[in-house]
Design a protein that fits this description.
single chain; 496 residues; mainly beta
Length: 496
Amino acid sequence: MKHYILIILLLLSNVIAAQKKTTIHILNADKADYDDRLGKDVQRLIGNVIMRQDSTYFYSDSAYFNEKTKFFDGFGNVHINVNDSVNIYSKLLKYNGETKFAELFHDVILQDDSTVLKTQYMTYDRIKHLATYPNKGTITRNDKKLVSKKGYYRDDIKVLYFRKDVVGTMPDYKIVSDTLVYDTENEMMYFYGPTNIYNNENTLIGNYGWYNTTTELAYLDRRATLINKEHSVTADTMYYNKKTSYAKALSDVVIVDTTNKAILKGEYAELWKNLGKCMMTNNLRSIYYEYSDTLFATADTMYVYFDTITNDIKHVKAFYNVRFFRNDIQGKCDSLHYTADDSMVYMRVAPVIWADESQMSGDSINIRICNQAIDNALMYPNAFIIQEDSIQGFNQIKGKQVTAYFKDNAIDHMFNEGNAETIYWLRDEDNSLIGINFSQSSQMDIKIKNRQIHNIKYYKNIKETLYPLEQVNDNMEYLDGFLWQEDEKPVREEFF
């Protein structure tokens, strides 16, 4: 709430308590006289003029002073010292001792500790402790420089208010804003309009927020974006630590990875650029579009690990309700791990994949990728492959371990080892059903043609039985563990 208070103090500050009227004292002048041409009550002071009201001192080369109205003009080398802390310099001064309001003209400089304000015209309200410039001013503080078309300075609370075309220049970054408040004591900058913070590596864009110049932590709200050559992160709200290159994004988050041609969407994300890690969760959806066959994926939570130099993805870990879709393969599981070094996808906890009209499952599934295409898929243990027959029933393959080999994005053959079992529907030359073939062996090599089982080679401990169609009953059509999950198969539309 402090930033709201600052704005109120700067723009609506009023002194409610009545101000005690005080006298203006002439402490020094080399020469003093009256000139009727200036007015009957106007005294002309020349040479080393020093005047005082309360704890404020006024210096100038010469002055016109009306003791009755407590109004005076100061000329040449004007210097105002306020409470022995704030110093203001100019070439011309107009001062109202009743309202304690000053106007300063030409080469105006205000100094307060390490804060220096420069402009060509300034007003200074002693009661409100408020300096105002309406026509461009420059503020320097240590290694910071800020320029704006208009601004205010509260010297009692050490707060600067900048308005219109604000440009802040620091040693290694720059700020461009519509409205900015700078709390110099706490080194905090508050933004109230479209704002850019950028350096050679990153650009931060937001419409509201703050920046701690000491810790280099930024908060941006009302739709914020972080942009660098590798990523762009957009969200309703964002925190960013410049020192550590850490970003936290909340609500309607969109991450675009230009290097890896990926888009991630969710409700919460964290990015550790220096550590090469990104995390996203809550309604997560991801799109990988580097190749013509775009991959869509969703999960409860996803971690992406990337090379900090090249930005190439090294690992991807996804957890809980993982689902993905590509034209040639779809899948689901509860835990997925991708490693770029060996181009492997590891699926764990109830994994199922659909490819080439086959449903494949097992306790674990390992998929090898080669040139962005599936090379093979290993299911173990309790491997189970189901393929719906074009006429009736399901062809099934079961075993301890089944490896499906792909060619041109289609299954070419399968190798089943360990308690291998199959059920498939046989047809004659005119494609009429003959019956069900049930087979068992230690190993099987299954050839696929036109997306159907073409032939099977059996190895060791072979048992094979053909049941004519008239002998087939419901109890014979399924191997133990059969589970058809077609209604769980991911479709493209669910990722939008």
